[in-house]
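Thread: "does anyone have the structure for this chain?"

Original post by V.I.:
We have the sequence but no experimental structure in hand. Need at least a predicted one for the grant figures.
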Amino acid sequence: MLLVEDNPVNQLLCEELITDAGLQVEVAADGQQALDRLQPGRHALILMDMQMPVMDGLTATRRIREQPAYRHVPIIALTANALGEDRDACLQSGMDGYLAKPIEPDALYAMLLQWLQPGARGAGQA
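Reply from O.Q.:
Generated one for you, tokens below.
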């Protein structure tokens, strides 16, 4: 799994929650770093912050979706703004869902379970 988040506190919190669930996580601090880390078969899911320096989450998601190996890998937005227009922007960029910040552990685990179970879009493809 790839966590794309620029805030060190959010990185540590999400990383701890994800590893506590028995999953491996790689961290990128911005969209460009995320693109640099992509390799086919490496990430089963991407958690993507919306607002980051260098490259924001919407731009990074559009660029990730251009890569054949990542067209169907679930990308979940992490956003402090869970307003309707923000959710629409996430979905239009190619994201599959969103989680509001601050991250609630139960909401994160439910999202991971939803997208990482067999039969979910992209599950096991990358």
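V.I.: this helps a lot. The chain has a mean pLDDT of 88.
O.Q.: and The chain is about 40% helix and 15% strand.
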